[in-house]
């Protein structure tokens, strides 16, 4: 059974058809990257999956369950989690306190401290645990945000341009984090422009164009597809 499936998903904003009959399927245990030119409808599709927009028509299934009518918090309770591009961290609190806020209601105190230590190691933020989150570098803030998104161990993680603004080294380290999460069983859907990252992590790539699924396949198939090169990859330094 797929972890996530959209069937005939449509979204209109007035006369603008932004999501056009999208059938997307993520198998459990898959890392799937969503690419496409600016304005292709990637963010809108993300918001539909998360429940921040209601579709004009179509169905969304999580683990086989129809979640189309559920609110975002109900989807999160069913094991979905998201990291947006703009960090939603509390700058005046320490790195550790940010993770505590995300996790405090879900663990006993002793287990909480242990889980946070493990997570800080995973995020390469152990040395920064006591620092104000506002003092972290841009890449570290993104990692803290990923930490908050994975702190409750979702089965489906949505990442919106996780490596935006990162150096190549930080991008690679982020890819390794995604690979480790995936090795532990997490299914991941990432909107991403950085083709090195896509090549590093993706089992499958979907190209969106004008709100539609334009092409789908492995990264090698996508890079070899001249139709994709014509609309997108020329701009993306594949
Ligand atoms: N709330 C809205 N109301 C009206 N139009 C919208 C709304 N949200 C998005 N759009 C339009 O839908 C189209 C797709 O936008 P979307 O942000 O989903 O694309 P994208 O692929 O994520 O682009 P980018 O890579 O630039 O973020 C754009 O033309 C945008 O102007």
Please tell me about this protein's structure:
The protein has 238 residues and is of the alpha/beta class. It has 2 domains: 2-79 and 155-236, Rossmann fold (3-Layer(aba) Sandwich); 87-153, no CATH class. Helix content is 38%, strand content 26%. It contains 9 helices and 10 strands. It has helices at 42-50, 72-77, 95-103, 109-122, 138-150, 168-183, 195-201, 219-223, 226-236, and strands spanning 2-13, 16-27, 31-35, 57-62, 65-66, 80-83, 156-160, 187-191, 204-209, 212-217. The strands form 2 sheets. Strands 6-7-8-3-9-10 form a 6-stranded mixed beta sheet, with helices on both faces. Helix 6 links the parallel strand 7 (156-160) and strand 8 (187-191). Helix 3 (95-103) runs parallel beside helix 5 and helix 6 (168-183) packs parallel to helix 7. The protein is globular. The mean pLDDT is 94. Adenosine-5'-triphosphate (ATP) is lined by residues 13, 16, 18, 36, 38-44. Residues 4-235 form the ABC transporter domain. GO terms for molecular function: ATP binding. Keywords: ATP-binding, Nucleotide-binding, Transport. This is Branched-chain amino acid transport system ATP-binding protein.
């Amino acid at each position: 059974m797929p972890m996530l499936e959209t069937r005939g998903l449509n979204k209109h904003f007035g006369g603008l058809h932004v999501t056009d009959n999208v059938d997307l399927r993520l198998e459990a245990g898959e890392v799937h990257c969503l690419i496409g030119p600016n304005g292709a409808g990637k963010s809108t599709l993300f918001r539909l999956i998360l429940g921040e927009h209601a579709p004009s028509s179509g169905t969304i299934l999580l683990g086989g369950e129809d979640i189309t009518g559920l609110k975002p918090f109900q989807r999160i309770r069913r094991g979905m989690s998201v990291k947006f591009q703009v960090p939603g961290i509390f700058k005046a609190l320490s790195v550790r306190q940010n993770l505590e806020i995300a996790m405090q209601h879900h663990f006993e105190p002793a287990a909480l401290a242990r889980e946070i230590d493990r997570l800080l190691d995973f995020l390469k933020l152990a040395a920064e645990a006591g620092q104000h989150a506002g003092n972290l570098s841009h890449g570290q803030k993104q990692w803290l945000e990923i930490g908050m998104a994975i702190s409750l161990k979702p089965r489906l993680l949505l990442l919106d341009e996780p490596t935006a603004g990162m150096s190549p080294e930080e991008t690679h380290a982020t890819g390794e984090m995604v690979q480790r999460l995936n090795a532990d069983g997490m299914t991941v859907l990432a909107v991403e422009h950085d083709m090195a990252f896509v090549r590093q992590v993706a089992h499958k790539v979907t190209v969106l164009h004008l709100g539609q699924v334009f092409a789908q396949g492995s990264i090698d198939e996508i890079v070899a597809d001249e139709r994709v090169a014509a609309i997108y990859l020329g701009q993306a330094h594949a």
